[in-house]
Amino acid sequence: MIVGLICLGINIYFVSSMGVFSSLLVFGVGYGLAEVALNVEGSSIEQKLGTTLLPKFHGFFSVGTLVGALSGSVAASLHIPILYQFLAISVVFVLLVCMVYRFLPHGTGKTEKSRNKRREKHTTLRMEKKVLLIGLFVLGMAFAEGSANDWLPIVMVDGHEQSIVAGSIMYTIFVLAMTLTRMCSSYFLDRFGRVAVVRATIMMAILGVSIVIFGSNSYFLAFGVVLWGIGAALGFPIGLSAAGDDRENATSNVAAVSIIGYTAFLVGPPFLGILGEAFGIRNALLAVLLFVLLSGIVSSITRENTSG
After folding, report:
1. pLDDT per residue over 114-157, tens digit each?
2. CATH 1.20.1250.20 intervals, the chain
3. Domain 124-302 has CATH 1.10.3720.10
4. Judging by beta carbons within 10 Å of its beta carbon (0-12, 13-18, 19+), is residue 109 exposed, middle or buried?
5. S-S: 268 plus which of 64, 143, 277, 301, CB 3.0-4.6 Å?
6. What is the pTM of this model?
7. Sequence-distant (≥ 6) Cβ neighbours of residue 54 within 8 angstroms
8. What sequence ranges are listed for the domain Major facilitator superfamily (MFS) profile (predicted)?
9. DSSP state at residue 155
10. CB contact at 8 A, 291 and 275
11. d(Cα 151, Cα 59) in Å, to the nearest integer?
């Protein structure tokens, strides 16, 4: 991942499109593997401590996004070359990894295969069905999150005729709402359970997206963006927590659900763009409502595993 990041800066600096593609590929592979490992280990810690942690872990992704955007803006305003920016990020990343690595217990990530083959065969079919339904749930929620990440500023500028600055502010509000929700969600998840919290946030997402589609007043739109951010914040991490309930197959289950989620991030925004060209960008957001409703229908699949 670090190699890909450094090469990306070099290839952007020398304007090599094929080099940029290759660097992004290397970076993406490293990032994807690290993402799955972090989610699996986070899920394992959740199980051992008996408390909800993954949403808070994902909250730090949002914090990193805000820090990266802010530092990138400062670097751009100071006219620092992109190569130096990427090199600085790589150095900071290496230092952070070295600091954290020495605190990891020996053997972290290693698991023993179950010797109970009969039980394994008996549960395989049931778990595969559960993972598919969790994937369907994550698909809808990741689509709601990814659509806002890629299209919310454009919806505000082109759909609601807001200024570019206002569009940027709306997106910042969305990210802040997501970050705070993820950071503060553990108490509610432990007290009320995944399903109740998920359904409440899905209702907020539906209301928020509806306001963004049909609203007009700037303050009302900002309120809708807050609801959208709260509503989309917990779907992905809760889906990963549910996928990790089966400890024997946690790695493959979390990996499968992650792939489905990132597929929604990858395919969803272009799909929304096609709909926007045909029906208008605000009307295209109706697709987001449909996907969130789909997640709501299958939300009971995220229920905690109490079978031990």
Report:
1. 444 444 554 555 568 888 999 999 999 999 998 998 899 899 99
2. 124-302
3. no
4. exposed
5. 143
6. 0.80
7. 39, 42, 43, 46, 237, 238, 240, 241
8. 128-308
9. I
10. no
11. 21
